[in-house]
C-alpha cells in the first residue's frame, strides 16, 4: 500500500477507463468528472460551461462575424467596434480553451488514478486540498485578467489596425474598414514618400538612440569615477550638485532649453553667439543644429541617473583588489580597464540596455523641444522626428491609424529583438541563469 496526495490510498487496480473520461470531458465539461464519481467537481465544471455559453455564446458568434467581415453595410456597421468585439471574442475563446484544457486534464488524471486503485478523499478533505493547491492562483487571477484587458487587448488592437486601411478616408461609420494584409508595410518600403520618410526617420532614430545614450553613459561614468577618486574632497557636496539636473522635472528642463535655443529671442543666440561670434545659429529651423541640441539636452537629462548608478556600484568594489593591482605595478588605466569597468558593467548592464530602449522611444524630448521639427521637403515627418513621434503625428494630425499601427509594430519588434539579444549577452543574465 502506498500514499498518493493527501490522505489518498491505492487499493486493487480497477477497470476504470481514462479514455472514456477524456471523451466525456471533451463532449461537455464536467462529464468526465461525473464519470469519475467526482460529482461536486463535475457539476461545477458543467455549470461553468453552461453559464459561459448562455452569457457569451451569442456575443462570441457576433464578434467572430465582426472581425472576419469588419462590417457589410456602410453607415450601419461600425468596423472599429466590430474589430473590438471580435478581439474580445477571441480572448473569451482563449479563456474557454484554457478552461477546457484543465477540465480534460483533470478528468484524465483522476481516471488514471482511480484505475490504479486511488480512493477519493471525503468532501471536507477535498475542499481543503483544493484550497491549498489553488490559493496562489486565486490571488493572482484578478491581476492576470486585468493584465489581459489593460495590456494584451490594446496590443492586439494596435496589431490588428496595422493590417487594415483605417485612415481619414476610410473612417467608420461613414465608410467601412477593410483588411489589406501587408499592404501598409509594402507602402512603407516601396512608395516614394513613405519610403523616403521611413528611411530618414529610422536612420535618425538609430543615431539619436546610440549617440545620445552613449554620451549620457560616458559622461555619467567619467564623473562617477572622477568623484570616487580618493584625492577628491567634498564628495557629498559634489555628488549633490551633479545630481541636481535629475531633481528638476524633465519637461521643465526641455521647455527652458527650447526657450534658450530659440532662433529669435533665445539667450544662446542673443547673449552668446551674436556678441562673441556675430552669428545667429538656426537652432530650431535647421535639422542638423536641432539634432545636435537634442543630443546635448538628452545627455544633460540622462547623465545624473547614470552617475548615481555608477557611484553606488563603485562603493561596492573592494579596495583590496586595487591594492593588489598596485603591488603588481598596474597603472590607473589598467586598474580601470580590468577592475572598475568590468564590475560596473556586470552590475549595471541590464539598466544600461534599458537606457537605450527608453531613448529609442523617447517621445517627450523630441516633441516638447520642437515638435519633431523643422519641416523637411519631400517627407511627412519633421527633421528631428523619431519613429514614436512620427507615429503620434500620423495618429493625431493626419488620422492615418493603420500606417501608425504598422510603424508601431515595427518599433515593438526592433525594441524587443534588441533587448532580448542584449540581455542574453550580458554577464549578469548568464550568471542568473546558472543559479
UniProtKB/TrEMBL annotation:
Keyword Metal-binding: no
Keywords: Cell membrane, Membrane, Sugar transport, Transmembrane, Transmembrane helix, Transport
GO cellular component assignments: maltose transport complex
Topological type in the membrane: Multi-pass membrane protein
Keyword Membrane applies: yes
UniProt GO BP: maltodextrin transmembrane transport
Superkingdom: Bacteria
PROSITE patterns: ABC_TM1 (PS50928)
UniProt subcellular location: Cell membrane
Sequence ranges assigned to domain ABC transmembrane type-1 in this UniProt record: 202-422
Entry's transmembrane regions: 20-36, 43-68, 80-102, 137-163, 201-228, 240-261, 292-317, 338-358, 401-421
GO molecular function: ABC-type maltose transporter activity
Family: Belongs to the binding-protein-dependent transport system permease family. MalFG subfamily.
The protein's role, per its UniProt record: Part of the ABC transporter complex MalEFGK involved in maltose/maltodextrin import. Probably responsible for the translocation of the substrate across the membrane.
Name by which UniProt lists this protein: Maltose/maltodextrin transport system permease protein
Species this protein is from: Amphibacillus marinus
Amino acid at each position: 500500500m502506498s500514499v498518493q496526495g493527501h490522505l489518498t490510498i491505492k487499493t486493487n487496480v480497477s477497470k476504470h477507463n481514462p479514455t472514456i473520461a477524456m471523451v466525456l470531458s471533451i463532449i461537455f465539461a464536467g462529464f468526465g468528472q461525473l464519470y469519475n464519481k467526482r460529482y461536486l467537481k463535475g457539476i461545477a465544471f458543467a455549470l461553468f460551461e453552461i453559464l459561459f455559453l448562455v452569457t457569451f455564446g451569442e456575443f462570441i458568434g457576433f464578434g467572430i462575424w465582426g472581425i472576419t467581415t469588419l462590417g457589410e453595410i456602410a453607415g450601419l456597421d461600425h468596423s472599429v467596434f466590430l474589430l473590438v468585439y471580435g478581439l474580445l471574442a477571441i480572448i473569451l475563446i482563449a479563456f474557454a480553451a484554457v478552461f477546457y484544457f484543465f477540465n480534460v486534464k483533470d478528468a484524465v488524471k483522476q481516471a488514471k488514478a482511480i484505475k490504479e486503485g486511488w480512493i477519493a478523499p471525503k468532501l471536507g478533505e477535498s475542499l481543503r486540498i483544493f484550497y491549498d493547491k489553488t490559493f496562489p492562483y486565486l490571488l493572482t487571477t484578478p491581476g492576470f485578467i486585468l493584465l489581459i484587458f489593460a495590456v494584451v487587448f490594446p496590443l492586439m488592437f494596435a496589431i490588428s489596425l496595422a493590417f487594415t486601411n483605417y485612415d481619414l478616408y476610410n473612417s467608420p461609420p461613414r465608410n467601412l474598414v477593410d483588411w489589406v494584409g501587408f499592404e501598409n508595410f509594402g507602402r512603407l518600403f516601396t512608395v516614394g514618400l513613405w519610403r523616403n520618410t521611413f528611411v530618414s526617420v529610422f536612420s535618425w532614430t538609430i543615431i539619436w538612440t546610440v549617440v545620445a545614450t552613449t554620451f549620457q553613459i560616458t559622461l555619467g561614468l567619467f564623473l562617477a569615477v572622477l568623484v570616487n577618486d580618493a584625492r577628491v574632497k567634498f564628495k557629498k557636496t559634489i555628488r549633490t550638485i551633479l545630481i541636481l539636473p535629475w531633481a528638476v522635472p524633465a519637461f521643465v528642463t526641455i521647455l527652458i532649453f527650447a526657450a534658450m535655443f530659440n532662433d529669435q529671442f533665445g539667450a544662446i543666440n542673443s547673449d552668446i553667439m551674436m556678441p562673441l561670434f556675430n552669428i545667429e545659429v538656426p537652432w530650431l529651423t535647421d535639422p542638423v543644429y536641432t539634432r545636435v541640441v537634442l543630443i546635448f539636452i538628452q545627455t544633460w537629462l540622462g547623465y545624473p541617473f547614470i552617475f548615481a548608478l555608477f557611484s553606488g556600484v563603485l562603493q561596492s568594489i573592494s579596495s583590496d583588489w586595487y591594492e593588489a593591482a598596485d603591488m603588481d605595478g598596474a597603472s590607473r588605466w589598467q586598474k580601470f580597464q580590468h577592475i572598475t569597468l568590468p564590475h560596473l558593467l556586470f552590475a549595471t548592464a541590464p539598466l544600461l540596455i534599458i537606457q537605450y530602449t527608453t531613448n529609442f522611444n523617447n517621445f517627450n524630448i523630441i516633441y516638447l523641444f520642437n515638435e519633431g521639427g523643422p519641416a523637411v521637403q519631400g517627407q511627412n515627418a519633421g527633421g528631428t522626428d523619431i519613429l514614436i513621434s512620427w507615429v503620434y503625428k500620423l495618429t493625431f494630425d493626419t488620422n492615418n491609424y493603420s500606417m501608425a499601427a504598422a510603424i508601431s509594430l515595427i518599433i515593438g519588434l526592433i525594441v524587443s529583438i534588441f533587448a532580448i539579444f542584449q540581455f542574453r549577452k550580458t554577464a549578469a543574465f548568464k550568471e542568473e541563469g546558472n543559479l
